[in-house]
Design brief:
Blueprint lengths: L14 H15 L3 H24 L7 H12 L13
Helix pairs in contact: 1-2
């Protein structure tokens, strides 16, 4: 974000959400919560565009099992594949 090109606003967040947001900002934007929120907003705009695309071309939404599998991968919970054995 460029100084002077921003507007000030306020949000009401519960303590746990604020703590998580500040932790994310510390890791990704040197503690700049405004930059973290700008990143989230940009990502959500892309997500909305993807949803519109899927709707336009009748791509069905993910079912609960697919969502659970994706979330498991994000968390790193998936089982690692066994190494392939080399044939003789």
């Amino acid at each position: 974000m460029r100084p002077g090109k921003t507007k000030t606003t306020s949000f009401s967040l519960d303590a746990a959400t604020l703590k998580s947001l500040k932790a994310l900002a510390a890791r990704r934007h040197k503690g700049n919560v405004s930059a973290m929120l700008a990143e989230i907003a940009a990502r959500e705009a892309k997500f909305a565009a993807a949803e519109a695309y899927f709707e336009k071309y009748d791509v069905p939404p993910l079912d609960e099992s697919a969502l659970a599998r994706i979330e498991s991968e994000w968390r790193g919970d998936t089982l690692k594949k066994k190494p392939r054995r080399r044939g003789a």
